[in-house]
## 1
Amino acid sequence: MENRFPMVDLKGQYRNIKDEVDAAIQDVIDNTAFINGKQVRQFAEALSAYQGGCRVIPCANGTDALQIALMALGLRPGDEVIVPAFTYVASAEVIGLLGLTPVMVDVDPASFNVTVEHLRPALSDRTKAIIPVHLFGQSCDMAPIMDFAREYGLYVIEDNAQALGAEYTFPDGRKARTGTVGTIGCTSFFPSKNLGCYGDGGAIFTKDDALAERLQMIANHGQKVKYHHSVIGCNSRLDTIQAAILAVKLKHLDDYCRARNEAGRYYTQRLKAFDPQEQYLVTPAESPFSTHTYHQYTLRIRNGRRDALKAFLAERGIPSMVYYPLPLQEQEAFRHITRAASSLEVSRDCAYSVLSLPVHTEITRAVQDEVIAAVEAFFG
Ligand SMILES: *Cc1c(COP(=O)(O)O)cnc(C)c1O
């Protein structure tokens, strides 16, 4: 059966801000400054304020953001970068692309995120950086990770593509936006992300001014002065039209995150009541040190029944997705370039048991009730 409602409702979201977005796009077209128009700088400034005043370097997409981050740190081929095995490919792809060695570590099955305990055994004398991924919308426990990085002189690049808008609380009570805690933070404005544009886009965060200059230079052909190239860089820009759209949507980001959080909590409350012993499924845990933006609402389905549940939902016109069906250590592209720091069993188990339910900024209780009823019918 065709899906009766969407996994992500970008049309419904647009409808609610249409006048503002249309005017912003028209303004760019009227001025024809399609590349590096004033809206790019204005959006970067607004996002900087949102992120508590860090430097913001806009770029073409989230994968570029990660690549430029690694390029700026002066790593050499053979240097090792620690990355979780259960993540979107981009987090690790850029490591391989630059001739660095991805060292894969497992994740905590409750939060799907790496902890410092996972990182420790991965350390070698070639380790130079860590890429903690704030998967599915909540922060890794960054304070112990930063202590560990300081102890061993490692860079920390936060992959914040899924958690923009989340807030991390340090043990002393201090709060920070995800993406502003590590050496560098990276995010994506892919349409379905927490803050999505109408095409591709990304940004890089840092609090280090010298590093910000270097990141900016690399994103712009390695030049500070036009036609004078001091390092090998790339061409990675955020379009002016996308920046104009993002400036409008940034004002709604907190509301969007709140809507996702309420929807996520509702699923958990209902599904926990249905299956209190976790016989059939495990609901996603909220980490005490982070807010959760529920970029995805991801269950672990017990007893190998994930694919059967997915098919059962599809027959009833209910979409669901598997993020991600293979752990990185089982991806052909990574088999020969990777060092595994452990058995990576949890990552494998997650890949074969996870199922993400529809969650987005416009979702209604009626739709959620229908999803929940279908999940219950499958197990009931
Ligand atoms: C989306 C995503 C990226 C890459 O972003 P793009 O803009 O698609 O290049 C990187 N890491 C994670 C975890 C993501 O979800």
## 2
Amino acid sequence: MKTKEEWNALAFAYSRTPFRYVARYANGRWEEGKLTERAEVVLGESAGVLQYAQTCFEGLKAYTAKDGRIVCFRPDMNAKRMADSARALEMPPYPEDKFLEAVKAVVAANREFVPPYGTDASLYLRPTMYATGAVLGVKPADEYEFRIFASPVGAYFKGGIRPLKLRVSDFDRAAPHGTGHVKAGLNYAMSMHAGAEAHAEGFDENLYLDAATRTFVEETGGANFLFVSKDNALVTPRSSTILPSVTRRSLEYVAEHLLGMKAEERPVPFAEIGSFSECGLCGTAAVISPVGEIDDHGRKISFSADAPVLMKLRETLTGIQRGEIDAPEGWLFPVV
Ligand SMILES: *Cc1c(COP(=O)(O)O)cnc(C)c1O
């Protein structure tokens, strides 16, 4: 048995748990999936995923709620988004109901790795789909694998929340009418050079502008933006080339329906962000990280480092996730 401190101290990194869920697609249909102890994937050298990056993924967490139930937060949204990603990449979508069954099976099998209530740790679940069939010419493969593995992870912010420092990137993340809204591995592959450069220059993340006009805020490599206006509205960028974050969509609902704030999802001109009082990033891993400063080629735009409105939003959403605050219908999904 680990102590709370030991759970919280776990890194946000892969560690192997005993069981994963695997289903194969062949001969035009998904075969019945099952739990397996085998963590290695054996692929032919010409597998579609290795040649043309035909793969997509998801990320969600299982954890113990206040009433002792082991739950996931809105996994139906991940199931649907993964099916959407698959269709965008000409992969056969994995049935959404089967996705939820697989989530339950993996968590139940690795139950001893679900942290107890009262920690900020969780059992991170990584669903992924990849082309296993051989290709040489450019075309969708005819065989695929769906897999969910689990890895316990600690508190995202060790030793307190620290405001992030971002810079405006000269690279683009996603093309208009491209794959920016798809949770595809390829979007991450092409953001790594820009990310490494930003880190080398002392920044935590890149802010990407829209590729077409370079005047609107898009997102970072892996998180959506949140802004708070001077009159206390939650403002979030709307764009067909950003990834529809489950966290962001949940926060918009919480702001509007639980905190009585105005929530505006609309195109956000970069020229406007200096007028916002708070800025943050959101995603499953950290929920909300406040952004203290954005560097636009030497011109610095700063935001409240304590981000009181965003921290209130964060507290409310994490309260809902832990079952301390009544959740809207269907948001907490019991898995065991
Ligand atoms: C996964 C992801 C997010 C965050 O989405 P959540 O559903 O909130 O975890 C944001 N941006 C990108 C590019 C992503 O891949």
